[in-house]
Amino acid sequence: MDMDPGAEPGPGPRIALHEAEFAADPHSAYARMRARFGPFVPVELSPGIPATLVIGYAQARRILNDPLRFPADPQVWEQSVPASCPVRPMMESRPNALRSTGVAHTRYRSANTAAIEGVDQHVLRALVERIADETLAGFQEAQGADLLTQYAWPIAFQVLSALLGCPEETGRRIAEGMAKIFEGVDAASGNQILTQAVADLVALRREQPGDDITSRLLAHAAGLDDVEMAHQLVTLYGAGIEPLTNLIANTVLKILTDDQFSGDLHAGGSSVREALDTVLYTDPPLANYCISYPPHPVDVDGYLLPAHQPVLISMTACNNDPALGEQRIASNRAHLSWSTGPHACPARPHAYLIAETAIAHLLDALPEMDLAAAPGELVWRPGPFHRALAALPVRFPAVSSV
Question: Residue 383's closest CA among 16, 98, 28, 4?
Answer without folding.
Answer: 16
